[in-house]
Amino acid sequence: MSPDELANRFEYHPPKDDETRGAHEYVRQVVYGVAVLLDKRVPESREKSLMMTHLEEALMWANAAIARNE
Predict the structure, then answer these.
(1) Contacts of 51 by beta carbon, 8 Å cutoff, 6+ apart
(2) Which are the contacts of 34, defined by CB distance < 8 A and separation ≥ 6?
(3) From CA 55, how far away is CA 67, in angstroms rounded?
(4) Helix (H, G, I), strand (E, B) or coil at 2
(5) What is the mean pLDDT of the chain?
(6) pTM, whole model, 2 decimals?
């Protein structure tokens, strides 16, 4: 891995403009909406807990992709 790529993975990436902030907010709204819908339909279980954890992970990675590659 190049030093630049390594630095990019670990440095803070503040939103640079309103478009980037909007992209982060859009992703949060979409993933939250999916979580709400699934929460109503999926029975309480270990699998549901994992599902919610992975939705949180998807949100994190989507926001990382936006922040790191704008």
Answers:
(1) 38, 42
(2) 55
(3) 18
(4) coil
(5) 95
(6) 0.85
